[in-house]
Amino acid sequence: MNFATILSPRSLKVSGLACRRGERVLFEGLDFEVAPAEITLLRGPNGAGKTTLLLCLAGLMRPTAGSINFSGRDPERRPDSDIGFLGHLSAIKTRLTLTENLRFWAAVNEVSPALIEPALEAVGLAPLAGLDAGHLSAGQTRRLALARLILSDRPIWLLDEPTAALDADGDLLVAGLIDSHLDRGGMAVAATHYDLALKNPARVKTLPIGRRP
């Protein structure tokens, strides 16, 4: 994977955003911005609306009010063509090998299959490339999902608990991947209960999520 290539710059501005689940308001009046080479960490208890916010940013859920604007996008491309989304579910087919899984996502995201091997190497799974994904541990499955994320090579990363199921080495892997993404000019929003060992605190912002009493 060529982490030296600079990504097309994207920035995010959220204004007056509100979202409810049923009759319950999760958050309202939410305003924040994310610039290229920055990451915003979403903080809050379970049920506060962190995942809901990520789904709104990804265009998978419609907010109750407010606006979400990503600048720098090509208006001729699909709105989600800039977004790499890592959710709770790893989006892995257990009956396919690791390589076959990534070959599928390479086709979906219109990227070269030549990037599959470097992506597996980047997450430490290259020796298991021919193994059915159903034989992976929870941590290895999460690493495969991370390989899918970096294979897509999108400038905007939306990450929901990216270190879930990973050990200490996996936590450092996630931090390193995010650092490389930001170094290339990418931007990210991540919901996490844990601090990430990122190398430059100046480009990390924190956003509390959830209604205040």
CATH topology type: Rossmann fold
**Can you list the strand order of the major beta sheet?**
5-6-7-3-8
Task: List segments where confidence is low: pLDDT < 50 over at least 5 consecutive residues.
Answer: none
The biggest sheet, with number of strands, parallel, antiparallel or mixed sense and barrel status, is:
5 strands, parallel
* Distance, first to last CA: 46 Å
What structural class do helix, strand and pairing data support?
A: alpha/beta
| Average of the residue pLDDT scores | 93
- Count, helices: 5
Describe the fold and architecture.
The chain has 213 residues and is of the alpha/beta class. The protein has one domain (11-205): Rossmann fold. It is built from 5 helices and 8 strands; from the N terminus they run βββαββαααβαββ. The chain has helices at 50-57, 98-109, 116-122, 138-152, 168-183, and strands at 11-21, 24-34, 39-43, 65-71, 83-86, 156-160, 187-191, 204-208. Strands 5-6-7-3-8 form a 5-stranded parallel β-sheet, with helices on both faces. Strands 2-1-4 form a 3-stranded antiparallel β-sheet, with helices on one face. A hairpin with a 2-residue loop joins strand 1 and strand 2 (24-34). Helix 2 packs parallel to helix 4 and helix 3 crosses helix 4. The radius of gyration is 17 Å and the shape is globular. The relative contact order is 0.23.
